[in-house]
Amino acid sequence: MPRSLPNIIVTGTPGVGKTTHCEVLAERTGLKHLSINQIVKDRECHEGWDEEYQSWIVDEDKLLDAIEDEVKQGGNIIDWHACDLFPKSWIDLVVVLRVDSSTLYDRLTARKYSEKKLQENLDSEIMEVLLQEARDSYDEEIVVELTSNTSDEMDSNIDRIEAWLKQWKEDNRPEDT
């Protein structure tokens, strides 16, 4: 049975504004914000803590099993720094947020990222790693790259995603019988 609401991934390097985008979108659209970092922690979808990176070591199989039922129902905004592990059949839109290097540097420094973690994330952003991952994993027409340097850009991004959602609902309305 087709979903009555779409699933959207909001992805990008740490510090691009994923969680803020997702929280505002969830509030404005009624879609459910699935914070993968929180799910990994709360539902124990990990293999322990990585001291060097100060993050959980994600067990992707456990994670997918933990969210499969709710994602298959639709109506979710998936918030994570990766997207390629989610099956194509689950996803209707992939939003890759991007920021310029100096903005990202300031945001990650404010989060007190270690020098190594900071540099790896800056390199990932500069090399467009997550954008390429999204393009490699999903059909080109559902991958959208949006810039998130300012609050005005964020507002514009949210408006665009809301417009997409409205159109998706129109296009996927159950047939009148």
TrEMBL record:
Q: Which reaction does it catalyse?
A: ATP + H2O = ADP + phosphate + H(+); AMP + ATP = 2 ADP
The molecule here is called Adenylate kinase isoenzyme 6 homolog
UniProt entry tagged with the keyword Amino-acid biosynthesis = no
Keyword field: ATP-binding, Cytoplasm, Kinase, Nucleotide-binding, Nucleus, Ribosome biogenesis, rRNA processing, Transferase
User: Gene3D superfamilies this protein is in?
Assistant: P-loop containing nucleotide triphosphate hydrolases (3.40.50.300)
Please give the InterPro entries that the UniProt record associates with this protein. Answer: Adenyl_kinase_AK6 (IPR020618), P-loop_NTPase (IPR027417)
Where is this protein primarily located? Answer: cytoplasm
Span list, region LID: 110-120
The family note in this entry says:
Belongs to the adenylate kinase family. AK6 subfamily.
Subcellular location(s): the record lists: Cytoplasm; Nucleus
Chain segments carrying region NMPbind = 35-58
Q: Which domain of life is it from?
A: Eukaryota
> What is its quaternary makeup?
Interacts with small ribosomal subunit protein uS11. Not a structural component of 43S pre-ribosomes, but transiently interacts with them by binding to uS11.
- Enzyme Commission number(s) from the entry: 2.7.4.3
Q: Which HAMAP family match?
A: Adenylate_kinase_AK6
Among PANTHER family, the record links this protein to:
ADENYLATE KINASE ISOENZYME 6, POS9-ACTIVATING FACTOR FAP7-RELATED
Function text: Broad-specificity nucleoside monophosphate (NMP) kinase that catalyzes the reversible transfer of the terminal phosphate group between nucleoside triphosphates and monophosphates. Has also ATPase activity. Involved in the late cytoplasmic maturation steps of the 40S ribosomal particles, specifically 18S rRNA maturation. While NMP activity is not required for ribosome maturation, ATPase activity is. Associates transiently with small ribosomal subunit protein uS11. ATP hydrolysis breaks the interaction with uS11.
